[in-house]
Amino acid sequence: MATHTVDVYAFFFNGANSSTNISRIEQDISKANSAWKGCTKFVLEGAYFNEDKIVNAGSIPSDGVFKNRQMDSLIKFARNVTGNKIGIYVFYLNGDFLAEGKGRKVVGASTTEVGYFESSTNYELFGHIVLTDKAAGRYTFAHECGHVLFKRYSETRNMFIHDDPSGPYINFQTGKRDPAHNSDQKNLMFPISPSVNPIVTSQQCQIAKQSKIVRNNIDKYYDYYDFRNT
Ligand SMILES: [Zn+2]
Questions:
Q1: Ligand 1 mean position to 180 CA, how many Å?
Q2: Cα(164) to centroid of ligand 1, in Å?
Q3: What confidence score (pLDDT) does residue 219 get?
């Protein structure tokens, strides 16, 4: 059976000590693995700590997290550290919320960057996730991983999309459709991720498994030859 593995690289700029941060990433990975159980497996491949380098979440606007120059330099730094390894890069920032952009209290954000692009089936992706201190103990990391893994090239639409295949979320007050999210409150991809046992649908799982960020480890079977009679 093939396993679908996602490599995770963690970068801490939250000022917490390394043992606190190790428990933090272990908790996030374990929550992601419980939410995505039987689908994709998240593995911590590297963690970078620097207690002296603190980045305040409040200095990054929630409506332009990845257009922010400070974030851009953190991502460049991280990619340099790993030597551009494919995976999900998670950045832990100091403070409870990102700076208010849309007037919401945002504790997590993500984007999926396209590396090389040869064709609609041959391209490279890197996932980037930002988390604040308030995202701790929740399924925020698991939810943001969903956004990252849903990014794919749509042949029919001739563009990259990151729609939730079980979506969209429809705001019943405004009637606004949000294709990236889910309308089921129990689903991991509901705009505010559930705090207990989030659901991942089989369609969501199928799309996530096909992400270019996922590594397929196909178990090897060896044939044994018996040479005695030859
Ligand atoms: Zn979301």
A1: 7
A2: 10
A3: 56
Domain ranges of the chain: 2-218
Could you tell me the distance, in angstroms and rounded to a whole number, from the CA of residue 189 to the centre of ligand 1?
6
Output the pTM of the full model: 0.92
Confidence of residue 217 (pLDDT cuts 50, 70, 90): confident
Mean pLDDT of 3-13: 96
CATH entry 3.40.1350.10 includes domain 2-218? no
- Span from the CA of 210 to the centroid of ligand 1 (angstroms): 19
Residue 227 has pLDDT above 70, yes or no: no
Residue 2: pLDDT band with limits 50, 70, 90: confident
d(CA 191, ligand 1 centre) in Å = 5
158 Cα: distance to centroid of ligand 1 (angstroms): 23
110 alpha carbon to ligand 1 midpoint, in Å?
Answer: 8
CA of 154 to the centre of ligand 1 (A): 20
Q: Give the DSSP letter string of the chain.
A: -EEEEEEEEEEEES---HHHHHHHHHHHHHHHHHHTTTT-EEEEEEEEE-TT---BGGGSBTTSGGG-HHHHHHHHHHHHHHTS-SSEEEEEEBSSSPBPSSSS---EEEEEEEEEESSSSSEEEEEEEEE-GGGTTSSHHHHHHHHHHT-EEETTTTEEE---TT--EE-TTT--EETTS-S-TTBTTSSS--SSS-B--HHHHHHHHT-TT-EEEEPP-------TT-
pLDDT of amino acid 33:
98
